């Protein structure tokens, strides 16, 4: 384990790290994780992104270092759509957006415009990550759009192809 990295413990559906100067610094700079009860909780997508950027090491329940492949395998088992969701998360973070989970909105993510940090303003979009081979009905599409509209956010549909490339569609609610 590298002492200059965040050390997180893999827990079901998230990775948890103690509040420390390193976790606080990474949070203050880019809003990774969420602080509760003197611990930072990271979504699995956030954790993998931080691992790939060399900012985090993850240990299992026995405090044994986890290999990247093991982390991904466990994440995919817990979240069958993990790789699609992570592809979108990584792409948006790479474009300079802050991306957080959006379970309470029934969406995959909420996305903050560049320069906006959670807690300072609201997210601009609710985003759904979809693999190009998936489909959903017009009723499901309408429900997603209604959630975005009722929360005063734009609907962003992210389509991931087999190569991992992402195409975004911004959907606006219009009244004729």
Discrete helix count: 5
Q: Tell me the overall shape.
A: globular
What is the count of structural domains? 2
CATH topology of the largest domain: Trna Endonuclease, Chain: A, domain 1
Give the class-level CATH name of the largest domain. Alpha Beta
In short:
It contains five helices and ten strands. It has helices spanning 21-30, 44-52, 68-78, 82-94, 138-150, and strands at 6-11, 14-18, 34-36, 39-43, 56-59, 98-102, 107-112, 125-131, 154-160, 166-171. The model has no long low-confidence stretch (mean pLDDT 91).
Description:
The strands form two sheets. The chain has a five-stranded mixed β-sheet with strand order 3-4-2-1-5. Strands 6-7-8-9-10 form a five-stranded mixed β-sheet. α2 packs across α4. The chain is α+β, with helices and mostly antiparallel strands and 176 residues long. The protein is built from five helices and ten strands, in the order ββαββαβααβββαββ. The chain folds into two domains: 73 residues, MutS, DNA mismatch repair protein, domain I (3-Layer(aba) Sandwich); 90 residues, Trna Endonuclease, Chain: A, domain 1 (3-Layer(aba) Sandwich). The protein is globular. β1 and β2 form a beta hairpin.
List keywords for this structure.
10 strands, MutS, DNA mismatch repair protein, domain I, single chain, five-stranded mixed beta sheet, 2 domains, Trna Endonuclease, Chain: A, domain 1, globular, about 180 residues, alpha+beta
What topology does this entry show?
Elements (H helix, E strand, L loop, with lengths): L5 E6 L2 E5 L2 H10 L3 E3 L2 E5 H9 L3 E4 L8 H11 L3 H13 L3 E5 L4 E6 L12 E7 L6 H13 L3 E7 L5 E6 L5
Parallel strand pairs: 1-5, 8-9
Antiparallel strand pairs: 1-2, 2-4, 3-4, 6-7, 7-8, 9-10
Helix pairs in contact: 2-4
């Amino acid at each position: 384990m590298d002492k200059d990295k965040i050390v997180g413990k893999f827990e079901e559906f998230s990775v948890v790290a103690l509040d420390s100067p390193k976790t606080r610094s990474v949070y203050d700079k880019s809003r990774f994780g969420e602080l509760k009860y003197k611990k930072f909780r990271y979504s699995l997508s956030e954790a993998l992104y931080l691992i790939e950027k060399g900012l985090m090491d993850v240990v299992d329940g026995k405090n044994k270092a986890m290999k990247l492949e093991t982390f991904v395998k466990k994440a995919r088992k817990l979240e069958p759509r993990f790789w699609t969701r992570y592809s979108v998360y990584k792409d948006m973070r790479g474009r300079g957006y802050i991306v957080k989970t959006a379970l309470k909105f029934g969406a995959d993510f909420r996305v903050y415009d560049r320069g906006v940090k959670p807690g300072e303003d609201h997210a601009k979009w609710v985003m759904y990550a979809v693999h190009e081979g998936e489909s959903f009905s017009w009723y499901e599409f309408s429900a997603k759009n209604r959630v975005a509209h009722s929360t005063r956010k734009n609907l962003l549909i992210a389509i991931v192809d087999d190569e991992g490339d992402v195409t975004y569609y911004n959907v606006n609610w219009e009244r004729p």
